[in-house]
Design a protein that fits this description.
about 270 residues; alpha/beta; Rossmann fold; eight-stranded mixed β-sheet; about 35% helix; globular; binds thiamine diphosphate; binds magnesium ion
Length: about 270
């Protein structure tokens, strides 16, 4: 008997190139489950990604039309796709460096515009693919290859940032919380407007070893033991929560969507011209 999810994968290139213990396989697995349960035909999906290990989750492994773009530019490409093909599910999966570092402005402006795309940001707290440089989500004081004495910067709280910028939907879960993550992925994909899920994920190769967690399982235990549901904190932005993973839904609201607005304004202009 064949696994029902295999049909979503480019089987000719399996097994994946992810390191042992990487969270990338879990994200791919849960994403396939979400698509399967939503009964979305992959022909109605366009995947867009940038450069990094997390960008390998959709490309090459997920079997749908895919744009594997330049580092930091996935959301810009995805916006263009959504403008021309509003009927498609346009889904970005990429890393924290890609989406919050070099691509940070695209991220917040897409949330402000409420472009009807879905973004899954795989936050492994590091530039994984290039050997472990500091990223905008690396916690304060962590040693990386570019912060050998410890990181002097505090990290971005990405899901809060995206919610504040205006996204229709923003949530944070981890690769330990697979059922909640699947539900959030399904909700995000079906949500009109800009929808976003930050997925805290383990990278034993380039991050875990820097924080005394050499195996993927060690980071999963950290997600299990140090996650707090948003419902149980009064202020997710509070620095007292540093070292904790604040999980749950940060925004779920109805706002006008960018490509709808664009079409409406264009048609009003065309009518006025006649
Ligand atoms: C314009 C540009 N700058 C830098 C790079 C080098 N580069 C490739 S991937 C990457 C960072 C990857 O980190 P992240 O996006 O967090 O993905 P991860 O590998 O951690 O999943 C960098 C800096 C590049 N390819 N292009
Ligand atoms: Mg990363």
């Amino acid at each position: 008997m064949q696994n029902k999810l295999l049909k979503y994968l480019r089987r000719e290139i399996l097994p994946t190139a992810f390191c042992a213990g990487c969270g990338g396989g879990t994200v791919l697995n849960i994403f396939c489950h979400a698509i399967d349960e939503l009964k979305i035909n992959p022909d109605d999906i366009i995947m867009v990604t940038g450069i990094g290990c997390s960008s390998w989750i959709p490309s090459p492994y997920f079997h749908a039309d895919t744009l594997h773009t330049t580092h930091g530019r996935a959301i810009a490409f995805a916006t263009g796709v959504k403008v021309m093909k509003p009927e498609k599910h346009v889904i970005v999966i990429a890393g924290d460096g890609d989406l919050a570092g070099i691509g940070g402005n695209h991220l917040i402006h897409a949330a402000r515009r409420n472009v009807g795309i879905t973004v899954f940001l795989v936050n492994n707290y590091i530039y994984g693919m290039t050997g472990g440089q500091v990223s905008p989500t690396t916690p304060y004081s962590v040693k990386t290859t570019t912060t050998p004495y410890g990181n002097a910067e505090p990290p971005f709280k990405i899901a809060e940032l995206v919610a504040a910028a205006g996204a229709s939907y923003s949530a944070r879960w981890t690769t330990y919380h697979i059922f909640q993550l699947k539900k959030a992925m399904k909700d995000a994909i079906m949500k009109k407007g800009f929808s976003f899920v930050e997925i805290c994920s383990q990278c034993p190769t380039s991050y875990g070893k820097n924080v005394g967690k050499r195996e993927g399982i060690d980071q999963l235990k950290d997600f299990r033991d140090n996650s707090i549901n948003l419902k149980n904190v009064s202020d997710s932005d509070n620095e007292g929560n540093d070292g904790k993973y604040i999980i749950g839904k940060l925004a779920d609201r109805t706002r006008q969507e960018f490509t709808d607005n664009l079409r409406m304004i264009n048609s009003q202009f065309a009518e006025a011209e006649q």
